[in-house]
Amino acid sequence: QVRLEESGPGLVKPSQTLSLTCTICGGQIISSYGWSWIRQPPGKGLEWMGVIDYAGTSYYSPSIKSRISISRDTSKNQFSLQLSSVTPEDTAVYYCARVDGTSWNPDYWGQGTQVTVSS
After folding, report:
1. How many C-beta neighbours within 10 Å does residue 84 have?
2. pLDDT of 50-78, one tens digit each?
């Protein structure tokens, strides 16, 4: 059974960089799957942010492409999100997820972590 655990600060100041890590338990990051970050702002729907695929190549949502970076640490079985120049509009529950290597549909999710952008 794959389990994903998000970790990182719950409060980030405007203009700073939001950094989150997802630890993978019960599965290997080097696999045929991809690994995604998805967020849900308050009162809004889910927003796909990006994915790192089995080869370690990252793909991002066009709306945040200039601010986002997704990377992986194979020695720790983790992948990470960095989102720069945050504003209060980046306040959301952030989820990491395992996704199908072809369709990028999520099949396992972390429990989510609340990140608030505020001074």
Report:
1. 14
2. 999 999 999 999 999 999 999 999 999 99
